[in-house]
Known about the structure:
The complex is a heterodimer of chains A (113) and B (114).
Chain A: E1 4-7, E2 10-14, E3 19-25, E4 30-38, E5 45-51, E6 56-59, E7 62-67, E8 72-77, E9 86-94, E10 102-103, E11 107-112
Parallel strand pairs in A: 2-11
Antiparallel strand pairs in A: 1-3, 3-8, 4-5, 4-9, 6-7, 7-8, 9-10, 9-11
Chain B: E1 4-7, E2 10-13, E3 19-25, E4 31-37, E5 44-49, E6 56-57, E7 64-66, E8 76-78, E9 87-94, E10 104-105, E11 109-113
Parallel strand pairs in B: 2-11
Antiparallel strand pairs in B: 1-3, 3-8, 4-5, 4-9, 5-6, 7-8, 9-10, 9-11
Amino acid sequence: GENVEQHPSTLSVQEGDSAVIKCTYSDSASNYFPWYKQELGKGPQLIIDIRSNVGEKKDQRIAVTLNKTAKHFSLHITETQPEDSAVYFCAASKGFGNEKLTFGTGTRLTIIP
Amino acid sequence: DGGITQSPKYLFRKEGQNVTLSCEQNLNHDAMYWYRQDPGQGLRLIYYSQIVNDFQKGDIAEGYSVSREKKESFPLTVTSAQKNPTAFYLCASSILITNTGELFFGEGSRLTVL
């Protein structure tokens, strides 16, 4: 089955700097890659996703890049703010159906004021 | 507001007892899911349901049971057969299970076995 590795497990960034979280996946047939943000005491929330026919996607300060050849994708957060502090999960899926999603182990991002 | 409500938020259980976690959604979503979250691990799928009266095992279904008698409700029972039940449990829903898209999560239930 699919295996998703996520690095780093923890990341501290000065407010205003950029943060990058990387994930690699094992199944070259995977075609959907979402990122979820989980704030303390809450459930995860989708912040951005990308499908395999696209190399990059941006939404304001957040961007995701996908390298299908290398089988890795990354989350980029620019101009970080204190409210960006959370745990971020990547995931990968092959085919259609959320039941096929495999999640990474999470990255705890701390923004230092 | 539309969303997913999980209860209770915290639950303590003695070994050998069954416990049921509630999940209700008012998003009119067809698909519902239960995930387990452990420290340092990703979310792992326990059970999912596409329609009323139908559900399928996920990757770690052993020791758990579910029912889907109503579209808006998908309770999870953690049975005494689950060997390591202490965890954070998340319920989620999506519009359609056949379309990979956004999962909407509840705020979770933390189960501790004493």
